[in-house]
Amino acid sequence: MCGRFALAYPRSSLIDWYHAASMPDIEPRYNIAPTSNILAIRDSANGREGAMMRWGLIPNWAKDTKKLPLMFNARAESLTTKPIFKHAFRRQRCLIPASGFFEWKLLPDSKSKQPFYFCAKDGPLSFAGIWETATVDEVTIDSCTIITTASNALMRSIHDRMPVIIPPEVWDAWLTPAEQPDDMLLSLLQLSAAPMQLWPVSPAVGRTSNQGEQLIQPVNE
User: Which of the 8 DSSP states describes residue 156?
Assistant: First the structure.
C-alpha cells in the first residue's frame, strides 16, 4: 500500500520534468496523507497539466462521501474487475509525482514499527493513478487514487505492496485519455521502476501534523 508520501520538488522542476503546459503553485510537503489535496499530472485539451485532487477516489456517481471507503489505493489486480475503478482506469489515468514515500516495518518485538523512506536514486517517482470527477452537495470534486502492486526486491522485507511507478518512456501511453485495451494498460503497470534506495527515518512521520524536511532524514534503527 501507499498511505504517506512526500513531494518537495520546485514547481519549475516539475514543469520541466513532465513537460506540463500548466502547473499549480505548490509548496514542499514532507508528510502527505490521504484526504489531503495532492498534485496529479493528466492530459487535457491544452496539453499535459498539473491539477490538485483529493487523495481518495470518489466515484462519479457518489452523493455522500461519508458512506464511501477511503480509497487512497487501488490494487492493480482489481482495476478491470471492480466497477468502481473500471471507468477511470480506461479513460482517466494520471501520474502522481513524489519525492519519495514511507512504509513501516514491524519490529521483532511485534509491538512497534520502524518507518522507512523510499525514493529514486535520480529524479522524482511517478506513481500510477486514476482520477474521477464527482459532484457532492453541489460541489465538484476531482479525486484520485494511487495504484499498488506486489513489492519489488528492495521493498519486500518491509511490506508486501508498493505503489506502481511509471517510467518516463511510457508516460504518453499511460496518460492518453483515449480508451486503450486493458491488456496493454496492465502491461504498463509491470515495467521495471527506476533504481530506488531506502533508509530508516524518525517515527515522527507517524503524526500527520508533523511536517518538515527532517522527516525524511536518515536515523539509526
Answer: T
Residue 95 structural domain:
5-205
The three-state secondary structure class of 84 is: helix
CATH number of the domain within which 183 lies = 3.90.1680.10
CA 216 to chain centre: 17
What are the start-end ranges of the E strands in 78-171?
A: 93-98, 100-106, 113-120, 125-136, 139-150, 161-163
Q: Which residues are catalytic?
A: 2, 103
pTM for this prediction = 0.95
- Give the confidence band of 179 by pLDDT, cuts at 50, 70, 90: confident
The vertex-43 CA angle with 38 and 44, nearest 5°, equals: 105
Number of domains in the chain: 1
Residues 32-61: tens digit of each pLDDT: 999 999 999 999 988 999 999 999 999 988
